Amino acid sequence: MKSSKKTIKSIVANTATIFISLIILIPLVVLFLNSFKTQGESNKMSLTLPSTWQFENYKTVIEQGKLVSSFFNSLLYATVSVVIIVIVVSAAAFVIARNRKGINNLIYYFIISGIAIPINNVALMKVLQALNLVNTRIGVILVYAAINIPLSLFLCYGFISTIPREIDEAAVIDGCGPIKLFVQIILPLLKPIMSTLFVLNFMAVWNDFTMPLYYLNNSAKWPMTLAVYNFFGAFENSWNLVSADIMLTLLPVLIVFILGQKYIVGGVAAGSVKG
């Protein structure tokens, strides 16, 4: 009786999983097929194969959509901001996790409160104007870093809390100073959570649309998300070209996710043990 109930539950769970997967995958398949169709065929938005595979759609998109410069802009914003996040968060989480007293405790809760507090774009614009960072690449990079630090600190703090303090004590006895202790002993142990933070934040920055829309007025500095938006405005009736544009934008983040998905599961699970 118990085995039959388990079988039924397993069938229901698998069916639900397959159904949810299809909801996510079917639009991607439609986009992929449409990117190789003619304009007339792509307007039907169907799962049928193209009568003739139009590979030149991608060439047209790359040439007319300014995707090369937009790709490098997105890569710059995502990579630099994520490197800043990983370095700052790993060091801060180590200090706070090893000394949760007084001001450190206040700072920790102040920073992670940013997870729930919405972004005030008016105040943020005033700050960037005061620092002459509006319409600059470094301004957007710093905004991305600041926005994603709270959740990253929360996860990294939980991960470091699982590392025994005895490791620190043994290293200090052997003559390690604070910096040497962190760089040579603790940092190698943080590879799982650092990989997780890199993948999650890279995808978040790459897919973001609103920040560059608000703070970048120069199309030469636009990332790929804004390039797709601009391209759609110019070719809204050419769904084959729009689909090719979207596929090229999705490709890098899909590759990063596929390569780093095992780190996401392991790192988030470890980082959620303590908080």
The helix-strand sequence is: HHHHHHHHHHHHH
Any idea how many domains? 2
Largest sheet: none
| CATH fold type of the largest domain | MetI-like fold
Q: What is the overall shape?
A: globular
Query: What is the CATH homology-level superfamily of the largest domain?
Result: MetI-like
Low-confidence stretches: 271-275
- Average pLDDT confidence is 85
Helix content: over 70%
Number of discrete helical segments: 13
| Terminal-residue CA separation | 41 Å
Structural class: mainly alpha
Beta-strand percent range: under 5%
Description:
With 275 residues, the chain is an all-alpha fold. The chain folds into 2 domains: 1-56, no CATH class; 59-272, MetI-like fold. It has 13 helices and no strands. Helix 3 packs across helix 13, helix 4 (67-98) packs antiparallel against helix 10 (191-207) and helix 10 runs antiparallel to helix 13. The longest helix is centred in the N-terminal third of the chain and has 33 residues, at 2-34. The radius of gyration is 23 Å and the shape is globular.
In short:
This protein is mainly α and 275 residues long. The chain has 13 helices and no strands. It folds into two domains: 1-56, no CATH class; 59-272, Orthogonal Bundle (MetI-like fold), CATH 1.10.3720.10.
Reconstruct the topology from this structure.
Elements (H helix, E strand, L loop, with lengths): L1 H33 L4 H4 L13 H9 L2 H32 L4 H10 L8 H10 L6 H25 L3 H9 L4 H12 L1 H17 L2 H6 L8 H11 L4 H33 L4
Helix pairs in contact: 1-13, 3-13, 4-7, 4-10, 4-12, 7-10, 7-13, 8-9, 10-13, 12-13
